[in-house]
Amino acid sequence: MGQEERTVRFDHDLQIEAYRFQGIMQKFPNHFHEYYVIGFIESGQRQLSCKNKDYVIGTGDIVFFNPLDNHACEQIDNKLLDYRCLNIKPEVMRKVTKEITGKDYLPRFTNPVSYRSEQANLLHNLHQMIMAELPDFEKEEAFYFLMEQLIQKYTEEHAETKHEGIDQETEKVCHYLEVHYAEHVALDDLANISNMNKYSLLRSFTRIRGITPYRYLQTVRINEAKKLLEKGVKPLDAAMQTGFVDQSHFSNFFIEFIGLTPGQYRNIFINNDK
C-alpha cells in the first residue's frame, strides 16, 4: 500500500480552499459544513450518505454539498481513494453567482451526485491550477467558466431559511448549540429547551436534521475552530475556545471530520501570509 498524501491550499485570488487526498481509506462520519463543497473522485469507490439518502460514487463522479447538508462516506471495495474538492464560503458563492446570473441569491445544488459528469475535467484542471499556485488570470477564467456551468446545470434559486423544514423545538436546540458550543452541554439541558424527554428529543432531532445532537455540536465546534485556525490561533487555544476537553480530543475530531490535523489546516493560512 502506498503512502497517503493530504494536500491543502487556500487560494487568495479566488478566496476558496482546495483539498487533495491521495491514497486514503479514512471513513468520514455524519457531519456538515457551513460552506459549499464541490468535489470529485479521481480514483476509487465510496458509499455516500447525504441527507439520509445513500449513493455509490466512483471515478469521474462529482459531489455537491450545500451548507448544512449532512453527509458521510466510507470505502466499500477495500481500495484507496483519490479525491479533490473545492470549499466555497457562502459569501463567495453569492458574489460569484451574482456576477454570473445578475441575481443576488445563494444557489442550492439539487442533487448531491452527478455521475460521470461532463464537468469533471474542468474541475480537475482548475484544481490543478490552484494546487500549482498558477497566476490568477488563467485560473480565475477557468473558475468562472466552471461555476457558470455548475450553477446553470445543477442548482436552483433557493429561498434562504437557516434551518429549513425544522420544527420550532428542534430549531431551539440548534440555536442553543450554536451559541453555547464552547460550554459544557448536557442532554438534560437540551431536553428542557425542547420540552421533550431525552429519547424523544434524540429521535426527533436526528429524523429532522439527519444528524444526532452530539454530532451537531461537534460539527459546530469544528467549524468554529476552523475560523480560529484561519486567524493563526494555536491548535491548543482553538481547542480550549471551542469546548474540547483537550488538544488530543480536538485533534481526533478535526482529523475525523476534515481529514487534516489542526496544525496542517492552520499552516496553509500562515504560509500564505508570509
TrEMBL record:
Pfam hit, one: HTH_18
Stored PROSITE patterns: HTH_ARAC_FAMILY_2 (PS01124)
Gene3D superfamilies associated with the record: Homeodomain-like, Jelly Rolls
SUPFAM superfamilies linked to this entry: Homeodomain-like, Regulatory protein AraC
Keywords tagged on the record: DNA-binding, Transcription, Transcription regulation
Top-level taxonomic group: Bacteria
SMART domains per UniProt: HTH_ARAC
Keyword DNA-binding: yes
CDD domains referenced in this protein's UniProt entry, alphabetically: cupin_YbfI-like_N
Family matches, as InterPro entries: AraC-bd, AraC_XylS_family_regulators, Homeodomain-like_sf, HTH-like, HTH_AraC, RmlC-like_jellyroll
Any one GO molecular function term: DNA-binding transcription factor activity
PANTHER family: HTH-TYPE TRANSCRIPTIONAL ACTIVATOR RHAS-RELATED, TRANSCRIPTIONAL REGULATORY PROTEIN
The protein's name: HTH-type transcriptional activator RhaS
Protein species of origin: Aneurinibacillus soli
Gene: rhaS
